[in-house]
From TrEMBL:
SUPFAM superfamilies: FAD/NAD(P)-binding domain (SSF51905). Belongs to the FMO family. Coiled coil: none annotated. Its EC number is 1.-.-.-. One of its GO terms (molecular function) is flavin adenine dinucleotide binding. It comes from the Eukaryota. It comes from Juglans regia (English walnut). This is Flavin-containing monooxygenase. InterPro entries: FAD/NAD-bd_sf, Flavin_mOase, Flavin_mOase-like, FMO-like. PROSITE patterns: PROKAR_LIPOPROTEIN. Pfam families: FMO-like (PF00743).
Length: 521
């Protein structure tokens, strides 16, 4: 049978999926809705920088150019790096630009037959079923559509774009009663530098949101308008943000990103010795969290402005909600160009916002920017034409998106998802996933039975609920990232302990270069 592979998206995950399937002798087709590679990095706000030090955000076989001296490269430098990678490995010819995938539809076995399968796809093989995926693609220039057929589809569509999360309001309390302008952070990020600067110039701006995009946009507006037109940041939940990559002079990598740090937490499928260690070392885990919190309380005026998070540093870390503060963020708050307000809800009136609380406050505004996130699960769901597959892929409100190894859905044949589950090393984690997937497509890896994969998924879900709290649906694997990589390495028959010497193995931070040449060892 034919083994045609389609890849949806040409961001970091899509480029990696293309590169590693090419290495295995496949001839993939990549569908990209935009005119260039880079995914999220093609539409960011002007001040966006890489949150990771560049050494932790790089391809294992393609270093950053020596011309990039910054520890945290700008979004332009990151985009050029991704473009260079695509050029270097000959990926560009395989990409169909301006090609938006509308949906994918599986045509083959009946749902009744698929329900009876004991093995994924009936055989446990990547091309084992007789079905094909019909892909409907729209040309974003001409708006014409064309249908394609493939045996396997890799969805690399990301979760932080495309489908914004817009708050709902009671009648006559939403944006329709407001005389100003309301946009989502996605719309602001899509603007060019000149248009964005003109939009915010000399305006009273309210930014709604609690995470990184809200913080960055608010800081950018404060820089542009100063104290004459202060920007107000409205947050529902305060989170822990880092002013730098160290805590009390100790690199975050030595506290959170080495193998020893993972001995302090329980891990999915752990054996008794690991379970015993995690239990015995739980006081140390608590101490590390308090160590971080004490530094952040000391370094930033959190108490002064009422933004001390009510949850632990560990929970924010585990659910991938830790972010880097923009430069001189609290200096802007001190001078008055940025105003912080907390509120569980808000509504609109003619001249601005009503911030609800014990005493509702009116806030006059000309522009409201909703940095309220994205509906990543709905975006993934909408890719499928089948209502049954839509139900399968999103799980329920009390479960994670059910993916084995965060890649394969046990009951949807011949599809893989790359880049949905979160980590602090998304590029490096996606690279290992794509190597795992290419290994599987080439017939060198066997999947467990469907019910065993589902048991594995539930183990990971329970672990995420334990450490990520109410944010478990984000599928954050930060607290067990090395453990997760170990599973992928073992599946591929690769050495999972990658460092030289026991001290380095347990106490030095892990990063992308530790997995260089993964399939050659």
């Amino acid at each position: 049978m034919e083994k045609r592979v389609a890849i949806v998206g040409a961001g970091t995950s899509g480029l990696l999926a293309c590169k590693y399937t090419l290495q295995k002798g496949f001839n993939p087709t990549v569908f990209e809705a935009k005119e260039s590679v880079g995914g999220l990095w093609t539409h960011t706000i002007e001040s966006t920088k890489l949150q990771n030090a560049k050494e932790t955000y790089q391809f294992s076989d393609f270093p950053w150019p020596s011309s990039v001296q910054e520890v945290f490269p700008t979004h332009t430098q990151v985009l050029r790096y991704l473009e260079s990678y695509a050029q270097h490995f000959g990926i560009i010819p395989y990409i169909k630009f301006n090609s938006k995938v509308i949906n994918i539809d599986y045509v083959g076995e009946s749902y009744e037959e698929m329900e009876s399968w004991d093995q994924w796809g009936g055989t446990g093989k990547p091309f084992g079923s007789r079905g094909k995926w019909h892909i409907l693609v729209q040309d974003t220039k001409s708006c014409s559509t064309e249908a394609y057929q493939f045996e396997f589809v890799v969805l690399c569509i990301g979760r932080f774009s495309g489908l914004p999360n817009i708050p709902e309001f009671p009648p006559d309390q939403g944006p329709e009663v407001f005389n100003g302008k309301v946009i989502h952070s996605m719309d602001y990020s899509d603007m060019d530098k000149v248009s964005a600067a003109e939009l915010i110039r000399r305006k009273r701006i309210a930014v709604v949101g609690s995470l990184k995009s809200a913080i960055d946009i608010a800081a950018e507006c404060a820089n542009a308008n100063g104290v004459e037109y202060p920007c107000t940041l409205i947050q529902r939940t305060a989170h822990w943000f880092l002013p730098s990559g160290s805590l009390w002079g100790v690199s975050l990598g030595f506290l959170c990103f080495n193998r020893f740090s993972e001995l302090l937490v329980h891990k999915p499928g752990e054996t008794f010795p690991y379970k015993f260690l995690a239990t015995m070392l739980s006081p140390l885990r608590w101490a590390v969290s308090k160590f971080a919190e004490s530094y952040l309380r000391w370094k930033s005026p959190l108490k002064k402005y009422g933004v001390i998070p009510k949850h632990s540093f560990l929970q924010d870390f585990s659910s991938c909600r830790i972010g880097m503060l923009p430069e001189k963020f609290y200096d802007k708050v001190d001078e008055g160009s940025l105003v912080l307000k907390k509120s569980q809800s808000f509504s609109f009136y003619k001249e601005g916002l009503i911030i609800n609380g014990e005493e509702p406050q009116q806030l006059k505004a000309d522009l409201v920017i909703l940095a309220t996130g994205y509906k990543g699960d709905q975006k993934l769901k909408n890719m499928f034409e089948s209502q049954i597959f839509r139900k399968y892929i999103v799980g329920s409100a009390t479960s994670i998106v059910p993916l084995y190894r965060q890649i394969i859905h046990p009951r949807i044949p011949q599809v893989a998802v790359i880049g949905y589950a979160e980590s602090y090393f998304n590029l490096g984690t996606s690279e290992i996933r794509c190597q795992w997937l290419a290994h599987f497509l080439d017939g060198n890896l066997e999947l467990p039975r469907i019910r065993d994969m589902e048991k594995e998924i539930i183990m990971w879900e329970n672990n995420m609920k334990q450490y990520d709290g109410r944010y478990f649906r984000n599928s954050g694997i930060a607290s067990s990232n090395i453990w997760y990589n170990d599973q992928l390495c073992k599946d591929m028959g690769c050495k999972h302990k990658r460092k030289k010497g026991i001290f380095a193995e347990y106490f030095q931070p892990y990063g992308p270069l530790d997995y260089a040449g993964l399939l050659s060892k």
